[in-house]
Design brief:
204 residues, mainly alpha, 2 helices, disordered N terminus
Length: 204
Amino acid sequence: MLPEEKVCKYCGISYRIYDVGMQLKNQQNEFQKVEKQLSHLQDELKIKYRQSYIFSQRLSEYKYFWNKTLSLLTFTKRELTSIKNEVYDNYQNWTSLKGEIFLQIKSISETALTEIDILNKSLIVSQRNKVCLEKEMKNLKLLSDAAILRYQQIQTSRQQEVNLQTRCYDLEKEVLDLQCLVEALGVKLQKAVTEMDNYKEMLM
């Protein structure tokens, strides 16, 4: 290019400076886009961290509830064992008493008949108690099923927290990559500004 072709004959502006200025403007636009993306990712990262904290709090509550439930189930199991032993002892006692009653009936005494009536009433009470105990056992079974379901929900929440943390780590990596890109664009921008200043000095 001839010297007279480097400057516009109408406005007197150097074509080289104009090209560098356009490149600088394009790089500035690209730099602003990257800055917006970086800001968006940082906001998203903050939201993910906040969600992770909420999940952690819920998980702690679930763990506390689960420990309480386990304690209750352990206590209930001991009570059920004690009740079963008591029912078994009552049954054994009733079996023994029934044999004694049979022997007493043979004597057909009024005292024996009175004792039979009393024992029959005791048997009715024992049967009622047995029905009540069976209902309690069913309720405890429902409570156990609810505790198992709660445990499964806790496991699901824990897996969601792990997935969320993995997503946070991926977002952090993307942010670091974008920061490196921004730094590289900054260096290019600085070089372009320096080059433009050099051309201005050469033309002055």
